[in-house]
Design a protein that fits this description.
Order of helices and strands of chain C: EEEHEEHEHHHHEHEHEEHH
Oligomer: heteropentamer
Number of helices of chain C: 10
Distance between the termini of chain A: 47 Å
Membrane topology (chains A, D): Multi-pass membrane protein
Number of strands of chain C: 10
Subcellular location (chains A, D): Cell membrane
Structural class of chain A: mainly alpha
Strand content of chain C: 15-25%
Order of helices and strands of chain A: HHHHHHHHEEHHHHHHH
Protein name (chains A, D): ABC transporter permease
Distance between the termini of chain C: 13 Å
Largest interface: A-D, 44 and 44 residues
Chains: A mainly alpha, B alpha/beta, C alpha/beta
Keywords (chains A, D): Cell membrane, Membrane, Transmembrane, Transmembrane helix
Shape of chain C: globular
Main location (chains A, D): membrane
Strand order of the largest sheet of chain A: 1-2
Helix content of chain C: 25-40%
Structural class of chain C: alpha/beta
Strand content of chain A: under 5%
Bound molecules: adenosine-5'-triphosphate, magnesium ion
Chain lengths: 360, 318, 258, 360, 258
C-alpha cells in the first residue's frame, strides 16, 4: 500500500530551495500606504493634523495659539481618560455604557467621604478608586462568568450606578470653594502648569495635571497592550474568544481584569473631573458614554473587538475637540455646530475607510 | 396611618437639585397633612413622554391630584385634560402650561422677571461700562427649553439689549454679545461653554448663566486663566450653594426662586380639594399664584429691589 | 501496559444529537493512534472532551491511571496535552508569532521582563520562524503577518507547528493535513514520526487512509459516536478499515475486545 | 496508479444503509427546553408572563385590570414601533442610533408641512413618511456602499437629524388643540377603542390605533422575516456578510432596503407619537434610541446580528413597560425604579441565558 | 477549440504579497481541469477572480471568447458559474435548506407566492434533502438544522451539493474533499464525473494527487502565482507533477506552451 505515496516521498529529498515571491517594489505612496495599514492610529492622526491645519488657516492665531490648542487638550481630558477605559472594553468586543456613571459615582464617593464622614482626603480618594474598580468588577463578572452580553450588563449597571449616585449624594453639590480650602487634594488634577503666558498671566500654553495624566495613561496603556502578554490576551479575546480559550488564554480572568481596570480608570476620570469643574456634582458626566464611544470609533478601534489602539482613541477625542472649538470660533451657533460635528464624524470615518481601502 | 388621599408630583427630572428640593418640600407637607405622595420625573430635561406616562400611571393609581412641572408646556395639555376629565386636580408648578388655564391652577415664578432682575442689576453694576460690555450667554440646551428662553430673554431685556424673536435665544444682533453656548445646566457644561466663548474673545467681562451650577463651571474656566476677578457673573435659581457662591464673590447676583413653597402650596391645595372641593385661588392681578422671585446680592444697585445674601441664605433651598 | 490516556463511557449530547454515545478510548505510551470514521461520527467531539474543550455529560478520563476532570483546555495543556483543532483556534488579527506563543509568552530577561513584564518579541519570532522552517512552511514571508492573511494551508501549518513545539505528553491532531499541499503534508507526517521518536504519543484524526496506514501503530475506528473496534494496520487492509468504518462489514470480535 | 484507491471504490457498492443516530428520548422538561431553543422569543414571553403574574399578585386589581394592562400597551407603543425598526437593523449586525431623531423629524415634517405651508394633511403625512425613508436611505447608503460602521454613521446622522429638526422647527410646538381642529388625521393613531368601560367611560380596556398598528407591524415583520426571501437575506447578511455575498445575496441592496424600511417605520412611529402626545413637539423622543435598543436586547436579538425575532423585541418592550408601571404603582420612587429596572434588565437577560444554556 | 473560460495576465496583489502574477488560465468545454500547487501558490485567488469574488488588479477574463468583468459573485452566478469556496461561504445561523437556496429561493405558487412572496419551504426542503442524499450525506438528521451545528465534513458536503445542483456552465470546486470522509469523498468524485457527463466543465483544486489523476482531463500546475505548465495526466506520473509543482524539476517546454 506504500507505492501510492512514492510521489510524495520523492519530494522531501529536494533541497530546501525556499520559495519566495518577489517583493513588490513601490514608490513613496506605496510605502506610505503600507505604513498606514500597519499602524492604524496614523489615520486619525492625519485627520487630526489636517483639521488643525485647516482651522489654523481659517482662524489664524485665534485658533493656532498655544492657548487655544492646549485648551482643546483640557476640554478632551475627561473624555480621553474615559475613552481609554472604553477602548480597553471595546478591544474585547464589549462595550461599556456605565463609564460615565462609574466616573460620577467615584467622584461623589471621594467628595462625600471627605465632607460627610470627615475621612482624611487621601483615604477618601482611595475609597473612590476602589469604588470604581468594584463597579468594574461587577461588570466584568457578569460578562465573563455569567456570560451576559456586555451591552445589556453595562446598560443595566448604568442605571443602577446612576440611581445609586443620586440616592447616595441626595443630589447635593460640594462647592469648589469648600474643596479648595478643606481638601485641595481632590482638585489635584486641576492644577495648571502655564508655559509662556504674558505678564498678566494670560495666553500661553496651559497644561493641567489632568491633561498630563491623560497622556501618560495613553502611553502606558499603549505599552501594556503591545508589549505584555496580558495585552496580547486582550486582543485575542476580542478577536475570537473561543479560539483564545482553546489556545490557552484565561478568557474569564482577562475579561474581568479588563473591566476592573476600566472601572479604575473611570474612577481616576472622576477625580480628574473634580479638578476640572472644581466642585463635586452628581449630575455631571451624563454624556461621557456617547462621547467616549465616539472617540473610540473615530480613533479606528473596531466595535467588533480585537483591532485598534488606544493612541487612535486619543486622536479621535482630539478630532472631536478640534472641530467643536474650531466651529464655535468660526461663529457657528450651537445647533449648527452640533449638525456639523455630526457631518464631520461621518466624514472623518469615511476618510479613514478610504485610506484603508487604497492600501489594500 | 392609612392615607386616603393620594397625590402625584411629576418633575422634569429628579436629578436637578431644584426639583429634588421641590420633592422634599412636597414630601414634608404631605407627611404633615397625612397625604400619600408618589413622585415621578422625566429621565432628562425635555423628556416629555415619561411625563405623559406618569400622568397615566397617576390616573390608574386613583390619585386625587397631580402637581406637575411640564417639560413641554403645550404638549402636555392633552394628557392633563385626560387627568382632569378623570376627576383629578392638576396644578402646574414652576412652569405654566400653554394655555395657562389648561391646569386648574399654577404656582410658579416668573422666569422672565427673574432674568430681567439680574439683567437690570448687571447693567446698573457695570454702570458706564455696560455700553461697551462683552457678554457671554450660557444657556441650557440646543432644544431651547422654555425656562431657558425666558430667563435669557429676561436678562437681555433687563440689560437693555434689543430682543429678536422673544421665543428664541441666539437671534439678537447687538454687538456686545460675544456668543451663546449651551451648558446642560451643569458645572462641566458651564466650564466648557465658558472656555469656548473665551477662545472666541478673551475680553468677555459679563456672563449670564442659566443656573448656578453652570455659573460655578464658568467661574472655574475664568479662574484657570486668572480672570475670575474681572468678570461679572449673574445667574438664576437661589439654591444654597449658589447663594453661598454669591457670598464668596463667585456670582455677582442671582435671582432666587422658591421651589419648596411651590410644592407645599400645591400639596395644600390638593388636600383642600380632596376634603371639600375648594379650588385654589390666584395671586392678585395675575392668572397664576406667584411664589415670588428675589434678587440676591450684597451689592445692591439703586432702584432695584434686592435682598442680602444673609436673607438669601435663610430662604435658600438645596 | 497502562494506557497513558484512557476514556471510559464518555457521553456528549448536543440537543437532539448524541455526538458521543458511551465511548471508550485508549492511548498507549509512545504510540501513534489514528482515529478514523465518517463525517459526523463524533471524532472531533471525542478529542475535544480529552483536551478539555468540551465537558462530557458523563464518563471519565484518566491520565496515567489517575482520573482527571478538565474544565478548560488550559488544564489539559498544563498536563502536557497539546491539540490542533479542526477549526485551528487562532486569533485572525494577531500575528503568527503572537498566535504560536499565545498563553505562554516569553518575557524579556532582566528588569524589563520582571517589572515591566515586557515580552521578548525577538526571541519569540526567532523560535516561531524556526518551527515553521522545520515544517517547510517557507512561503510565509513575514512572521509578523496577521494570521487572517494566510492561505488556508498556511494556517494549518502554523497550528501544527504550535502543537509540535509545545506538546510534552500527548499531541492531538484533528485532520492536520486536510488543507495542506503534498509537500506540506509530507512534512507533517515526518514531524509526527519525529515526535513519536521523542517518545510522545500522538492521536491523529484523518480521512486520508494512506497516511493513516503509513504512520499509525493502532487504528481506532469510530462509528455513530462509539468506538467500533481497534485494529492493527499490519493485520488489515485499507479496504477492510473502510468497510468497518462505513458499516459494510462486521468488525472481527477480537478487535472489538481490544 | 489506481490501485491505491481500490479501498475507496469498494465502499460505493455498499447499499445505502442510512446511518442514523438514535433519537434521544426525553421527558417534558427536555421537550420544553428544545422548544425554547427553537423559538427564542418564548424566553422573553415567559419572563413577561411571570412579571405580570408577580405584579398582579402584589398589586391586585389596580394592576391586573384591563385598564392598567392596556395602559402598558399604550405606553410601550412608540418604543415598540421604533424597536421594530431597530430590530431590523440589529439583525443585520448594525445598530441605529438615529431612530429617535428620524421619528421626531418625521413628525415635525408632518406637522409643519400642514401648518406652516398649509398643505393638505394627507400630503404632509406622506412627506413625513418620505422624510423618514430618506433619512433611512442615507444611513443605508453610507453603511452599504461607503462601508462605514453603522454605529458611527447613525451616531453622526443622529446629531445631524436632531439639529436639523431643531433648526427647522425653530423649537416650536404645534398644540394639540390646533391639530384636533385643523388636521385630526395627524392624531389618527391616538384614536382609542374602549372595550368594557363603566358608564362614566372610565376603566375598561383601551386600545389606541397606535397599539393596533404596533401589533400588526410586528406580525407583518415576523411573517416577512420568516417566510420571504428578503427576510432570509436579512438574517444571512447579519450572520456573515461575506458568506452571504459569495452565496448570491445582494448584500448592498439588502442593507439599504433594511435601513430604508427602518426609517419608514420610524416615520410611522413619529405619526403615532403625534397621536400619543397630541401635539407635535420637536423635543420628544430623545430616549427612543436607548429604550428601543433595550427592548431589542431584552427580547433576545443578538447585537452581533443574524439571531432573534421581532416578536421577542415586542416582549422585551413589554417587560420594561410592566416593570416600570408595576414598580411605580408599588410606590417606588423614580430613582429606586431606575435602580430596580437596571437590576431587572440584567436579571431578565440572565434568566434568558440560563434557559439557553440548560437547553444546550 | 475555443476555451469556455479564459484568463489572461491576471494580477492580484495583497499589500506586499503578489498572489497572482500575470497568470493565464484556460478551461475547455466539457473537461475536468485540475489545478494543483503548493499552499499559498495563489490557487484560491485565481478561482476567486474567475468567480467574481475578487476583482483582479489587471488582466482580463473571457467567457466563450467574450470579455467579461465581474464585480460580484452574483454576476458570475448569472453566467452559470457556480463555486464552492475553500471557506465554504455559508451563513452559520441559518438552516441547511436556507443556505442551499440562498439567493435563489423558490416562491410558493398562487397568490401567496406572487403577492405575499411566501417561500415554498416544503419544496426547498425536499429538494435539499434529495441533493444531500445523492451525495450520501445521510448522517444529517434534520434539514432545518443550523449549519453551525454540522461537523466540518458535513458542511463541506452541503456546499458541494449546492454547487452541483445549480451550476449550469462551469462548476468550480476549491478543495471540495479536504474535510470529507472516505465515503463522502468518493461521492464527490462520482458527482464530478456525473456533472461532466452532463457536459458541464469543472475546475477542481485539490491537494489529493490520486483524486486529481483519477478524474482530471488536464492538470494546471500553479507555482508562485503563475501557471507553470499544463500537463495531461496520462503522459506524466504523480511524481512528475509533484516535482514540477515544487520546483524540483523543470517542466517540459511543450507543456508550458500548452
Ligand atoms: N456545537 C454543536 N452543536 C450541535 N451539534 C454539534 C455541535 N458540534 C458537533 N455537533 C454534532 O455532533 C456530531 C458529531 O460531530 P463531530 O464534529 O464530532 O464529527 P466528526 O467525526 O469530527 O466529523 P468530521 O469528520 O466531519 O469532522 C455531528 O452530527 C454534529 O452535527
Ligand atoms: N485577503 C488577503 N489578504 C492578504 N493576503 C492574502 C489574502 N488572501 C490571500 N493572501 C495571500 O495570497 C497568497 C495566495 O493565497 P491563496 O489563498 O490564493 O493560496 P492557495 O494557493 O489557495 O493556497 P492553499 O492551497 O493553502 O489554499 C498567500 O500568500 C496568502 O498569504
Ligand atoms: Mg471533525
Ligand atoms: Mg486555497
Amino acid at each position: 500500500m506504500a507505492d501510492a505515496q512514492d510521489y510524495e516521498k520523492l519530494e522531501t529529498s529536494n533541497a530546501q530551495t525556499i520559495a519566495q515571491f518577489a517583493e513588490d517594489e513601490r514608490g513613496f505612496v506605496g510605502r506610505l500606504q503600507h505604513r498606514l495599514h500597519l499602524t492604524p492610529s496614523l489615520v486619525p492622526l492625519i485627520v487630526l493634523v489636517l483639521a488643525i491645519i485647516v482651522f489654523g488657516i481659517l482662524l489664524g492665531s485665534k485658533f493656532f495659539s498655544p492657548f487655544a490648542l492646549t485648551l482643546i487638550l483640557q476640554q478632551v481630558a475627561i473624555v480621553g481618560i474615559v475613552g481609554a477605559a472604553q477602548s480597553l472594553v471595546i478591544l474585547t468586543a464589549g462595550i461599556d455604557l456605565s463609564v460615565g456613571a462609574i466616573m460620577v459615582l467615584s467622584s461623589v464617593v471621594m467628595g462625600q467621604f471627605t465632607f460627610r464622614y470627615g475621612l482624611p482626603v487621601e483615604v477618601a480618594v482611595a475609597c473612590g478608586l476602589l469604588c470604581g474598580s468594584l463597579c468594574g468588577f461587577i461588570n466584568g463578572w457578569l460578562v465573563a462568568v455569567m456570560k451576559l452580553p456586555p451591552f445589556i450588563v453595562t446598560l443595566g449597571m448604568w442605571q443602577i450606578i446612576l440611581a445609586t449616585n443620586f440616592l447616595y449624594s441626595a443630589n447635593e453639590t460640594i462647592r469648589s470653594q469648600d474643596i479648595a480650602t478643606e481638601a485641595p487634594l481632590l482638585q489635584f488634577f486641576g492644577t495648571t502648569l502655564t508655559i509662556g503666558a504674558d505678564e498678566a498671566g494670560r495666553g500661553g500654553a496651559n497644561f493641567t495635571y489632568g491633561v498630563i495624566f491623560l497622556v501618560a495613561l495613553v502611553l502606558a496603556l499603549t505599552y501594556v497592550l503591545r508589549e505584555t502578554a496580558w495585552g496580547r490576551h486582550v486582543y485575542a479575546v476580542g478577536d475570537d474568544p473561543e479560539a483564545a480559550e482553546l489556545s490557552g488564554v484565561r478568557v474569564k480572568r482577562t475579561l474581568i481584569s479588563v473591566y476592573m481596570l476600566s472601572g479604575l480608570i473611570c474612577a481616576f476620570a472622576g477625580w480628574a473631573l473634580i479638578g476640572r469643574i472644581g466642585s463635586v456634582s452628581p449630575t455631571s458626566g451624563q454624556l461621557a458614554n456617547i462621547e467616549s464611544i465616539t472617540a473610540v470609533v473615530i480613533g479606528g478601534i473596531s466595535l467588533f473587538g480585537g483591532r485598534g489602539s488606544v493612541l487612535g482613541m486619543l486622536f479621535g477625542a482630539l478630532i472631536v475637540g478640534v472641530f467643536t472649538l474650531g466651529l464655535r470660533l468660526l461663529g457657528a451657533d450651537a445647533q449648527w455646530t452640533y449638525l456639523l460635528i455630526g457631518l464631520l464624524i461621518i466624514a472623518a470615518v469615511a476618510v479613514d475607510q478610504w485610506i484603508r481601502r487604497v492600501s489594500n | 396611618a392609612s392615607h386616603s388621599v393620594s397625590t402625584c408630583l411629576i418633575t422634569k427630572t429628579d436629578t436637578n437639585p431644584f426639583f429634588v428640593k421641590m420633592r422634599e418640600g412636597a414630601a414634608a407637607k404631605a407627611e404633615e397633612l397625612g397625604v400619600e405622595l408618589k413622585t415621578f420625573a422625566g429621565k432628562i430635561d425635555g423628556d416629555h413622554e415619561t411625563q405623559v406616562a406618569a400622568i397615566e400611571t397617576c390616573i390608574a393609581d386613583g390619585a386625587k391630584g397631580i402637581l406637575i412641572t411640564a417639560s413641554d408646556s403645550s404638549s402636555i395639555v392633552s394628557s392633563v385634560q385626560q387627568a382632569r376629565d378623570a376627576g383629578l386636580l392638576v396644578i402646574a408648578l414652576d412652569t405654566p402650561l400653554t394655555p395657562i388655564d389648561a391646569a386648574d391652577a399654577t404656582f410658579a415664578t416668573d422666569n422672565f422677571l427673574a432674568g430681567e432682575l439680574i439683567g437690570k442689576w448687571a447693567a446698573a453694576s457695570l454702570g458706564a461700562d455696560a455700553a461697551s460690555a462683552k457678554i457671554g450667554l450660557l444657556n441650557l440646551g440646543v432644544s431651547q427649553p422654555t425656562v431657558g428662553v425666558l430667563r435669557n430673554q429676561g436678562f437681555l431685556q433687563g440689560f437693555g439689549i434689543e430682543l429678536g424673536n422673544p421665543n428664541k435665544w441666539g437671534d439678537e444682533t447687538d454687538p456686545r454679545i460675544v456668543g451663546n453656548d449651551v451648558t446642560a445646566g451643569t458645572e462641566e457644561g458651564g466650564r466648557k461653554a465658558m472656555e469656548n466663548l473665551l477662545a472666541k474673545d478673551s475680553e468677555i467681562n459679563m456672563v449670564y448663566t442659566i443656573n448656578e451650577p453652570s455659573a460655578a463651571g464658568a467661574y472655574e474656566a475664568l479662574k484657570s486663566i486668572g480672570r475670575e476677578n474681572d468678570v461679572l457673573i449673574v445667574s438664576v435659581d437661589g439654591g444654597c450653594p449658589g447663594v453661598q457662591n454669591v457670598a464668596d464673590g463667585v456670582i455677582g447676583a442671582t435671582s432666587q426662586q422658591y421651589p419648596l413653597l411651590m410644592a407645599s402650596k400645591g400639596i395644600e391645595a390638593i388636600a383642600a380639594w380632596a376634603k371639600d372641593g375648594t379650588k385654589p385661588t390666584f395671586s392678585e392681578g395675575k392668572n397664576f399664584f406667584d411664589t415670588g422671585v428675589a434678587l440676591v446680592t450684597d451689592k445692591p444697585a439703586e432702584g432695584i429691589e434686592s435682598i442680602s445674601v444673609k436673607e438669601g441664605m435663610d430662604k435658600c433651598w438645596g | 501496559m497502562e494506557p497513558i490516556l484512557k476514556g471510559r463511557n464518555l457521553v456528549k449530547r448536543y440537543g437532539k444529537v448524541t455526538a458521543l454515545d458511551s465511548c471508550d478510548f485508549d492511548l498507549m505510551p509512545g504510540e501513534i493512534l489514528a482515529v478514523i470514521g465518517d463525517n459526523g461520527a463524533g471524532k472531533s467531539t471525542l478529542i475535544k472532551t480529552i483536551s478539555g474543550a468540551v465537558i462530557p455529560d458523563a464518563g471519565s478520563i484518566y491520565i496515567e491511571g489517575k482520573e482527571v476532570k478538565f474544565t478548560s483546555p488550559i488544564q489539559a495543556r498544563a498536563h502536557g496535552i497539546e491539540t490542533v483543532y479542526q477549526t485551528l483556534a487562532m486569533s485572525p488579527a494577531l500575528s503568527i508569532a503572537d498566535n504560536m506563543f499565545m498563553g505562554r509568552e516569553i518575557k524579556k530577561e532582566g528588569f524589563m521582563g520582571t517589572i515591566f513584564r515586557q515580552l521578548d518579541r525577538k526571541k519569540m519570532e526567532t523560535l516561531a520562524r524556526e518551527k515553521l522552517t522545520e515544517l517547510g512552511l517557507m512561503t510565509i514571508q513575514n512572521i509578523n503577518q496577521a494570521v487572517e492573511t494566510l492561505s488556508g494551508g498556511q494556517r494549518q501549518g502554523v497550528a501544527v507547528a504550535r502543537a509540535a513545539a509545545f506538546g510534552s505528553k500527548v499531541i492531538i491532531l484533528d485532520e492536520p493535513t486536510a488543507a495542506l499541499g503534498v509537500k506540506e503534508s509530507r512534512k507533517v507526517l515526518e514531524l509526527i514520526q519525529d515526535v513519536k521518536a521523542r517518545g510522545i504519543p500522538i492521536i491523529l484524526i484523518s480521512h486520508n487512509m494512506p497516511h493513516v496506514f503509513e504512520v499509525a501503530d493502532r487504528i481506532h475506528i469510530h462509528r455513530l459516536g462509539k468506538r467500533l473496534c481497534v485494529i492493527d494496520p499490519k493485520d488489515y487492509t485499507m479496504s477492510d478499515a473502510v468497510a468497518f468504518m462505513t458499516g459494510a462489514k462486521e468488525p472481527p470480535s477480537e478487535a472489538i475486545a481490544a
